[in-house]
Specification:
single chain; alpha/beta; globular; binds pyridoxal-5'-phosphate; porphyrin biosynthesis; 16 strands; about 40% helix; seven-stranded mixed β-sheet; EC 5.4.3.8; Aspartate Aminotransferase, domain 1; about 425 residues; Aspartate Aminotransferase, domain 2
Amino acid sequence: MNRNEQLFNRAKAIIPGGVNSPVRAFGSVGGIPRFIKKAEGAYVWDENDLRYIDYVGSWGPAIVGHAHPEVIEAVREAALGGLSFGAPTEAEIVIAEEIAKIMPGVEQLRLVSSGTEATMSAIRLARGFTGRDKIIKFEGCYHGHSDSLLVKAGSGLLTFGNPSSAGVPADFTKHTLVLSYNDVTQLEETFAQIGAEIACVILEPFAGNMNLVRPSEAFITALRTLTEQHGAVLIYDEVMTGFRVALGGAQSLHGITPDLTTMGKVIGGGMPLAAFGGRADIMACISPLGGVYQAGTLSGNPVAVAAGLKTLEIIQRPGFYEQLSERTGQLLAGFNAAAADAGITFSSDSIGGMFGLYFAAQPPQSYADMTRSDTDAFKRFFHGMLNRGVAFGPSAYEACFMSAAHTPELIEETVAVARDVFADMAA
Ligand SMILES: *Cc1c(COP(=O)(O)O)cnc(C)c1O
């Protein structure tokens, strides 16, 4: 038995499924998860001392590359000054000012420790601000694991959702309406019928949790127009896309200003840090100013803030996103050509440092579309790449991430590996 197998068995005896977040268990691709020993730049090493070119990037945070020396130094320095105070610090103001400067829709914000907390708090805030209960989310968008968001679509247009997880009372999801991503007609009909009852609409402004799915311009425009007309809060969940698809997130690319924005992943630079923010009049409803309660023992943790601040500094250096996009483009051009040469049905898409690989002729436009892609082909691709030293997320429904540490040479190496894998798949 190799060390990954030994550790997986040991982990399963003490941690349910052997993992602390389900996708890590390789359930949808099969096989043994790689236990990671260390990471640096574009690489991770597993417990068998095998090295992988990593396109998971801790699911997005590692945009400047793993263990960037400047980030590590900032963390070390902060840690020497104490790990947590439970009191306000100057660094929290600095990072809040920095985020507000970068994110078009953010006038004020509050720091939390996970994306789940950010979206849960933003929804509570939207409900408190509007005095309404109902919320709209879209099928295939993930917003963390708070109760009212673990929901699947009901059977008809205006039937509210059913829990998608055991342990969530139906009462907790009965105010959540699940609509289809990119379906403008359905959105219009819903607002026409119950617009005055809707507290907020939350979406991933480029979806990254059903693989990468791009919104149409009509969909984005309708979202902003309808929420404005009906007094509903528009929440952009930019936990994944913020500082990832572009410095100013999806909202800077859409030219749309959401009322609230949730952020996470990149802003912590690999440490537990997230945030929600937006219009100052809405943010004023948060405790201690307003009646919407929200709190956190470790919120604004000084070590996490130090990692985040240094990461934000690095990504604002000239040319950072141009280079990231170029590298993503280089990788996908290579993959597209290699798949075509092997006769594999394949397509891809990218926005900034985030990309999607699809075993389908066209990139999907909705969750239903995505379910029609060839997940068996993905499994073979995934294991073929992993066995040859290239790591992607262990599910066909995940987006992939480029970092500044992925050099053109490493990308060429990745493409050469993909060429072998596609050829094997075709044989
Ligand atoms: C990752 C993610 C979350 C949840 O963040 P956690 O830090 O894992 O709780 C929420 N929304 C989106 C869009 C995400 O990608």
